[in-house]
Amino acid sequence: MIIAVLNLSGNTCKTTNTQTLLLPRISNCDVVRIESLNNDGKSIGEKVSGKEWGTIQELLHLNDNVILDIGSSNISSIIEAIKKDQGSEEIIDYFIIPTVPEEKQIADTISTIILLVELGVELEKIRLILNKVDPEITNDMQFNQLITTCREIGICLDNAPRIEHTQLFELLSKTKQSMQECLSDETDFKSLLKDASKQAIAARKDGDTEKQEIERKKISVLTIKQSTQRIAKRQNALYDIEFKKLNIQID
Length: 251
Fold this sequence. Notes:
By secondary structure, the chain is of the alpha/beta class. It has helices spanning 14-22, 53-59, 75-84, 103-119, 139-142, 144-153, 168-175, 179-184, 189-206, 209-245; strands spanning 2-5, 29-34, 46-48, 65-70, 94-99, 126-133, 162-164.
């Protein structure tokens, strides 16, 4: 199975969705990053330029399942390559378009859908993910123009995955962990915090301000990591639910 994750707009959570929502739930899966060849040190997957359509097609055959994480600056190159290799879009099973409730991103999302339709992509292959959603506001209010346009085209968003805005990734940045690293961390934070607390209290009683400050900083780091892991576990459980809404048929 081959999935393309794309949007003409940046900042729609394409890579985040690829690495945290899709990849952990698809077995025997590789990620191919189609963007500049500079390594940002964080993203998963082999990186190639959108101009290298031949190389990209080779990579699609190296594992059972492959996700193409297509950077917005490389979509034009990919589309042009597919047009020249007429019919090659058929090798992609699903086109997943993440978006967010901001005017520019919604306009670009609509343009992305239209581009795929004009390319000849079947509507049943197109999926959308609604990111950074305000849980207290309906989809109709946050994505009105997108929903209306999709309805006119023939795409229903009634059961599209709804990913609520979360502070998780800001916290992960502080702890310098990926979501998967955080989830697999078996550190006993409760015991470490209990010990650090004892040390801090003892230092305070002894008037050792330097030691107290050291333990206080340790408590701060441990508290953030513990909180991050709790939020990550909750987010992961939500991802399990939202992933099913994509209705992807995995071989």
